[in-house]
Amino acid sequence: MSTSQPPAEADPPPTRNQISGGVFFNAVIQGRGITVQLPPNITPALSGMPAVSPGFTGRDEELRELLGLLTPGAQRRQPVLVTGLAGVGKTELAMQSAARARDEPGWFPGGVLVIDLFGYDPERRLAPEHALHRLLRALGVTGEHIPSDLQDRARLYRSVLAAFAEQGRRILVVLDNASTAQQVDSLLPTDGGTATLVTSRHILDVGARLHELAVLDSSASTELLRDALRQARGPADTRVDDDPEATAVVADLCAGLPLALRIAAALLADAPARPMASLAEALRQSHTRLDELSREDRAVRTALHLSYRGLDDQHARLFRLLPLSPGPDLSTESVSHLAGLDQRQVDRLLQDLARAHLVEPGHTWGRWRLHDLVRLYADELGRARAEEDGHTSAVTRLRHHYESMAGAAETHLPGSYFTASPLFGCRRQALNWLDGERANLVAAATRGIAFTDLSTAVLNAPRSESFAYPVPAATQHPLTLLFRYLEYRRHDDDLIMVSESAVTRSRQEGDRTSESVALDGLGVAFRVGRRFEKSVQAHTNALEIAEELGARHSEARFLCHLGHALAETHKPGQALKRYKKSAKLFARMGDYLGEGVALTSAGLALYLMRRYDEAIDAHKRALAVVGRLENQGGKFEALNNLGLALREAKRVDESIETLTEATSLAAELGYRHGEAMALSNLGNAFREAADHKKSITAHKRAVAIAVELEDLHMEGKTLGNLGIVLGDAIKFKKAIKALDRATSIFVELGDSHEESKVLNNLGSTFVEKGDLGKAITTYHRAAAACARTGDRHMERQVLRNLELTLIREAISEPGSTTELTTAHPSLVRRGHASLVARMLSWRHRRR
């Protein structure tokens, strides 16, 4: 947008700044006509609370004490630590307290935020930085706004909680299953208003109010047994009262542990004719045969053993197989693949195991989890009978299930080159599956289930990147599929963790080829997470190994990826050197697709360097190379990029012709994402030709496709382009509406880079409209977005537009150069004193 047209002189409206309501996670700059962009409405973790037991009993006093500590008051809050033996009911008490506190009017209007730290499970234990990432996402903070450093994450997390508390939306945080103070320290709020419940088997030194949970006494144990039986069998079941002596023996042998007592009750519920004395005798015999260190552990183990002993072969085998999944829970569908059984049959078996308290229902219907003690017990049994149960085949079936479903879901992601799989009816279904299985997929990729041999993997860049290129279906790799999903959902931590795990595993195995591929994938992960210097280092390390091994094909590919990272660090010249070398290596090997990738990447680097004629030549060479293949996707990419370079070289007619061909090719291939990209670029070419009507039509078609694909990022980009041309056509109201919507989208996505670009154009639109006050406010917002991303190049553009607009506002008032530069000293510092004088001179001549 041009800012050269001076506005009509008018008295500026008085400046009034008022901000009320809402929670702000970023800087707010006050100026005229404040517009505040709030985060999306969220309900922090309410849907993630585990279901509480309807038969909660024996803890009335403890419940009253905890609720008393959670009651809103003026005193500064300290964390509450609920500690006690494994199986004593710490989590149940915490969740019962949280649920009741949540339902009390005005106590915690912001909701309850729950996270299981898995502190006593070495395979699933959450590091503080990963826990903070999950908590921040649950609080509505988008991926791009989450820092990489632990301390920075803790500061942001505490600031967000404090902001909610200040706005009357106080939150209760529940940190379940912590093992050490170090695991908890960074997760504790510090605002004095946010309440925190922590559960642990240890007394942690975290400055908390201690609540030690003892085992149930005989009376409470008896009441729990009675209540559990009545829940299962109704009031007619009187076995607890019919034989109080046997009941006392059962309660004693269960050591007052609720977990053991519930398992005992489940055994009785499954056999309504079984006398209490029979169970007491069975517990006595099992108890003496088990040699464990502590009486309490022995109680749980005894109850588990007795319950397990009552299972038939099918139930027992399924129980032993469940720990093979490294994730926090399992869907019924996944369990059916693990066991190799029909899903309806598996559902029935799981329901039976749940009634025996050997498995627990998950947070949502159709998902199942194991208590950590039960998991350890089942894993012990499973290891002893691994060959008999077919562990290897079970893991293979589960792996193939994850692979096939992840691959099918990937075809529904924006930017996929492949036909949408019929396994999912739509993108929403595919994303729901991926969201539900994310923790399991990440765990499978990092702990225990290796998808395939990394030495054969091709970890390609995500589809959404401008340098990405179509990949033949034969080279698709499950880790790549997971990679694309995590990039799309902006789960950067998981993305990097998966890649780092691959590097560690390959080094442990001493496989240098796998290590190079894994390092290359890590470089891409760092690039997606916008940690560009680390990306350059990882790709450099991968390249050094490939050169050392003489792996020319890997060397060529890694050179290309290193070029992408260098381009992101604003070093297109260095990137160009890598692309050229990559193209030569691919050409020597006769890999036309690889050569085309490198050539079109070189063209994009030349484009960034404003060497448009050379960029055109590179893209034409890429077209000639990929023309030898049947890969029409490669031809589309080259055509699309060629059209961009032709437009910047002012060869507008050729650009329109080329982009029209690219649009038609994408439509012919059914590549809707590419069609939208080409249409948007075509719209920009028509704008360059001053054909506003055709430009608007092309952009509207692009927006329509983006909406159809439910691709918010593409929708934001195309709306931004549409807003610019609408402004050129003097349709300011429609232009501002389009640009406002684009801004909202990028705020929602947490994409501050695109947000800054759109806001810059929106500011220019306000200038053209003559609304300098709103333009100044909008430029301030754009500058704040640039500051968040560290994009100095864009920030300089925004600040220059802001300064010019301030000048235009200032010269509409009587004054002199001295007065103006005194009012705006930053303009003089930035070397605009002479510009100020010229603008004042223009103003006086106009008068």
TrEMBL record:
Pfam assignment, any one: TPR_12
Domain AAA+ ATPase: 76-287
Superkingdom per UniProt: Bacteria
Protein name in the entry: Tetratricopeptide repeat protein
